[in-house]
TrEMBL record:
Domain Ketoreductase, chain residue ranges per copy: 3-181
Keywords of the record: Oxidoreductase
InterPro entries: KR_dom, NAD(P)-bd_dom_sf, SDR_fam
PANTHER family: ALCOHOL DEHYDROGENASE
GO MF annotations in UniProt: oxidoreductase activity
Organism: Streptomyces albidoflavus
Entry protein name: SDR family oxidoreductase
SUPFAM superfamilies in the cross-refs: NAD(P)-binding Rossmann-fold domains (SSF51735)
The keyword Oxidoreductase belongs to this UniProt entry's keyword annotation: yes
Family label: Belongs to the short-chain dehydrogenases/reductases (SDR) family.
Keyword Oxidoreductase: yes
């Protein structure tokens, strides 16, 4: 058994499904959810699936919630909590930009610090970050989200090097475009901005997430394997078929030139694609 596994952001999406699957297999799982209403909702879903799952309110940006988590004797941590703010870098309001980093970077790191120290003293433990392909590459209108995930990648890499001698391992999960609703709602956050729409550079009602999206099953399965220590790789780019494309994209950055003044292909696609477009099965 892997010991007590804490999963943040388990009120929905990847985190919730992974928590339920691990609990179904008899593991000691704590599903941390952002708001109190999600506690009863996730507990109800666990009952429906016939599994024992401990659900706790854990808003990673709340110092009180983070302090309570210190009493849970966590041996495996999945930093899964996250939000996504869409929009051009020149348009995103300051408070939305700060919120992006508080939830995706600052909160998770402040939660990780004391838990990692305990793991190091115990000389065992596992820390996994739910990063993104956006932690390695960047699309138009996702600059804030990608910047937060690039920061996550930096912290994860540093931790991996710093904790090695203490018997603690670190890994990242890097999902590409998966059809969970997360990517599409990123392109709707502009509806909550408190700004002057006339000052915006773009009309966000005309834009959508510029990628076809995959079924999320590979992320669920891979995350379970990583948390249980069955997969020893550091980085897990999903789906695997995207890896050659991402490697090529990263290598091309070394020869990149200034833009030529024309609208890039992905910006055009953001105008042309419909929300929640699935990847076509070949």
């Amino acid at each position: 058994m892997a010991g007590t596994i804490l999963i943040t952001g388990a009120g929905s999406g990847f985190g919730k499904e992974v928590a339920l699957r691990l609990a179904a297999d008899g593991h000691d799982v704590i599903a941390g959810v952002e708001i109190i209403a999600q506690v009863s909702a996730v507990r109800a879903e666990a009952r429906e699936r016939g599994v024992e799952l401990r659900v706790e309110k854990l808003d990673v940006t709340d110092p009180g919630d983070r302090e309570r988590a210190l009493d849970w004797d966590v041996e495996v941590l999945l930093n899964n909590a996250g939000v996504s703010e869409g929009g051009s870098t020149v348009d995103i309001p300051a408070e939305r930009l700060r919120r992006q980093f508080e939830v995706n970077v600052i909160g998770p790191i402040l939660l990780t610090q004391p838990l990692a120290r305990r793991m190091a003293r115990r000389r065992s433990g596992r820390i996994v970050f739910m990063s993104s392909v956006a932690g390695l590459t960047v699309d138009p209108f996702t600059g804030a989200y990608a910047a937060s995930k690039h920061a996550v990648e930096a912290f994860a890499d540093a931790l991996d090097q710093e904790l090695a001698e203490f018997g603690v391992t670190v890994a990242t999960i890097n999902p590409g475009p998966f059809l969970t609703g997360f990517n599409d709602t990123m392109f709707e956050t502009w509806k909550e901005w408190r700004d002057d729409p006339a000052e915006r550079l773009f009309d966000y009602s005309a834009l959508a997430f510029p990628h076809e999206q995959y079924d999320p099953e590979p992320v669920h399965a891979a995350t379970v394997r990583v948390l249980l220590g069955e997969d020893r790789r550091y980085r897990h780019l999903l789906p695997g078929e995207m890896e050659p494309q991402v490697r090529e994209q990263l290598a091309a950055e070394w020869d990149r030139e200034l833009n030529d003044g024309r609208r890039p292909a992905l910006v055009r696609k953001a105008y042309d694609i419909a929300p929640a477009t699935p990847v076509r099965e070949s």
